Amino acid sequence: MKRLIVAAQFAAALLVAGCTEEAPRSEEGVDRSAASSFGMIQDRTSSSPAEALFVEKCSMCHRNMGMGTVLLGRRMDPKVAPLEDRDDLTADYVTQAVRVGIGNMPIIPRGEVSDEQLQQIAGYLAKGDGE
Amino acid sequence: MAIADAGSVARALREMAAALGNDRVFFDQQDRMAYSDQFAWEPERHMPGGAVAPETLEEVQEAVRIADRNRVPIWPISRGKNLGYGSAAPVVAGSIVMDLSRMKRIEVDADNGTVLLEPGVGFFDLYDHLRDNGIPLWLSVPGNSWGSVAGNALDRGVGYTTYGDHAARICGIEMVLANGEVVRTGTGAMSNSSTWQLYKPGFGPSWDAMLCQSNFGVITKVGMWLLPEPEAVAGFDIECDKPEDLEWLIDTLAPLRREGIIQQSPSIGNWLRAASPLTQREQWAKPGEPLTDSAIAAIRKQFNVGYWSVSTRFYGPLEVVEATQKHVAKAFEKTTAQLTPSRWVKGDNPEGTPWTGVPVTFPLANANWFGGRGGHIGFSPVMPARGDVAMKLFRQAYDLFNQYGFDYHPSFALGERHMTNVNQILFDRDNAEMTAKIDPLFRQLVKNAAQEGYSEYRAHIDYMDLIASTFDFGNGALRRLNERVKDALDPNGIIAPGKSGIRSRAQRGEAA
User: Do the chains contact at A5 and B344, CB–CB below 8 Å?
Assistant: First the structure.
């Protein structure tokens, strides 16, 4: 396998974000497409309509190499910095964070994510029952 | 500062709700905050009066007609993610934000390497579309890729590949005028055009360039060229050790860029650009105290970055990029630069970075440099691509940033003839003492740049008038020309008043 080359301004970030030069990387118990884990390429796969909405609207920041994942990794165990790996999110909390903003996260307006879409995403992150 | 009439805005929003549906109009306090400047420490200065989210061209036309009839300003956004320049927020407080983020149609012509996009299509959307459909075309992505492809190009955003001058890759635009009429530019003006995304000029005056950073219409479609996947990508990651190395670094790269040996825009950044997404200031200095030389050395050591870093890449057939690589290495032979070569060939594992069109958002983690609810604002002068020019500006700006208590975070991106110096003023928007210093620093930077004859290439909504005022030839002749066009196309001044300092006659008296 050829060595994965990364640009200087991105190289250190890959190390901090836990990516290695050996790809693909798979995580036990997480159904992610290994083929999409090279370098900074984000896993964009989904297996349900709610997960697909999460990918479309949120994962750019809240999966691997996302700004949200990087910043949350500073405040908590980096293993649970990706929102999908959390088990403490409630639908109300997610809704509040999206509509009011939290920390460095900007508010996501209703034009971009409708209330109905947010309900689905919040349900997905809260594992369906808010607990 | 002008403020839109609240009664007229409320009436227009009611009419838009009646025409488009109640679920397309947003006007409560939370909605207005959602469309305000997300990095602002005083968001009320540009607080919108509400928002409307059309989903089709016809709905855009209808909403524009309603705004025109009621004489209320609308502020069209594509995705509203240009956080360093104002997010979704309008120049004129009380305006109705026209949120086009739901318009997400993508039409790719794989054979010709073009795409026709609606404004809501983000870089990740287009990336997914190309990958899911196995289309061998590459994006050019900006440093933070959560925004709109069309919106970024229209605001003259830049990327890393040979297609990184995004505005230059626009080919054909569809827009709605203030009277609701739909216009297509270039050869799209033929109703059965088969070259709309293939031939930029059209016949007679070309409008695409005029519609960038302008407010002459609401743009509903943008044609763009995409990079056909090359056989190979090779290049160098280059590190320089000393502040003064900037001069020869630019003087080595600029001729290669001018001669077309390097066909993308190498962007030279300092140690803070590389380190700020990865760490926080409090780990290296006490609040309010400057970063010492030893702290800077420690940061550079931890993240293994030079005082200046720059990468360059060459795209094309393997034998061509290898030859280019040799030529560029020779240009650096007599310097102290550390060159690390890179090479990707079709068939290898994906290269996996923005150099090959991979969208990312983590660089915006630099907003957390000072902690708190962070933010940044961009100061981005354009200057000649010369090392002595950059050194003079660097020394001056470095001292100014320190004087005002900020950390200097510059980049120098080399164009074919010019250089764009993008500076991010990083701040904690909850630190009132800090945010109070941003405006005086910014104004001093603009003043210094204007004295040297440098304009900015892009501006935050707070500073569009200030930047426009530096274009003073003929006592502001260009501004008056823009205003005459605005008066002709949008006499009631409803589309994005104040964008790039341009207002219609109806608002000019109130603009100071």
Answer: yes
